């Protein structure tokens, strides 16, 4: 760090936006049916607030679909689930033109991408052409069918899932495409107490508790305006830059990990880590960022951007191991 001055927190009496209280109601509502995935819900809300997308990796049955559908219900948003398969075509996602034999004209038929929240289930099951069609929609926020172009609905978020166990018959996402996801979240099995609660809630023929709509799309859109108002000290900004730079040139920071890193993170990671830390602070009920916010969200921003070398893989080290090494060696502000 070039500046080790103490962090000065802003006045804690600053009034929190009323939309933030709505977000806290959303979390409470989702917990009626979702147990043990608080981190996943938190990251989905960060993605929504930051107007970005989330990649989830976890084995089947961990409530990925339930979490995103519940989130859409609490906001009254449109939700579509797309099951990616090897025979899927780009037109199955974005739509196509339909020929009318009576008039001799073509009319557009919009695909499931025209929704607020999209669950791209097992995105690595579909071939590259289909993946790129989805990722183009994510980046450009628009879809072109024939001669016409439509803007996608707002808010718009894609939550894509990958199964880390099965690799046969899959098409791995290239690093450049994975980089378009703001966060990559790894989710695991619930602990014993959580699984017992799941059993008591779900293992019955009666319907599960209903989720109510407690906020709206406008609440999310208004909350995005508060991101720029969240205070971040220059020392924390420098820490974020150092964290990214250390992933590219660790030796400059006295970290002996250069042989373990094939590629470091791009400047997009710097932007996303800053935005995600501010959104994380908002969800914690603060209008200012503390260093712990950066550390809590850093793994989800960097795990798909810092690519370990073959030497690291030979030693059984993942990107998370490398990130942990950098975080432990880099002084915090």
Proportion of residues in helical segments: 40-55%
Largest sheet: 5 strands, parallel
- Strand fraction band? 5-15%
In N-to-C order, the SSE pattern is HHEHEHEEEHEEEHEHHHEHHEHH
**What would you say the CATH architecture of the largest domain is?**
3-Layer(aba) Sandwich
End-to-end C-alpha gap = 7 Å
CATH topology of the largest domain: Rossmann fold
The structural class is alpha/beta
- In terms of per-residue confidence, which ranges show pLDDT below 50 for 5 or more consecutive residues? 1-13
Strand order of the biggest β-sheet: 2-5-8-1-9
Text of the CATH class of the largest domain: Alpha Beta
Count of helical stretches: 13
Count of extended strands: 11
Number of domains: 2
Going by CATH, the homologous superfamily of the largest domain would be P-loop containing nucleotide triphosphate hydrolases
Mean pLDDT: 86
Sum up the overall morphology in one term: globular
- CA radius of gyration is 21 Å
Give an overview of the whole structure.
With 333 residues, the protein is an alpha/beta fold. The protein folds into two domains: 18-221, P-loop containing nucleotide triphosphate hydrolases (Rossmann fold, 3-Layer(aba) Sandwich); 226-329, Helicase, Ruva Protein, domain 3 (Orthogonal Bundle), CATH 1.10.8.80. 41% of the residues lie in helices and 15% in strands. It is built from 13 helices and eleven strands. The chain has a five-stranded parallel beta sheet. A two-stranded antiparallel ribbon has the order 3-4. Strands 6-7 form a two-stranded antiparallel sheet. Strand 6 and strand 7 form a beta hairpin. Helix 9 (234-248) packs across helix 10, helix 10 (267-283) crosses helix 11 and helix 11 (291-302) packs antiparallel against helix 13 (319-329). The longest helix is centred in the C-terminal third of the chain and has 17 residues, at 267-283. The chain is globular. The N and C termini lie close together (7 Å). Mean pLDDT is 86; it is low at 1-13.
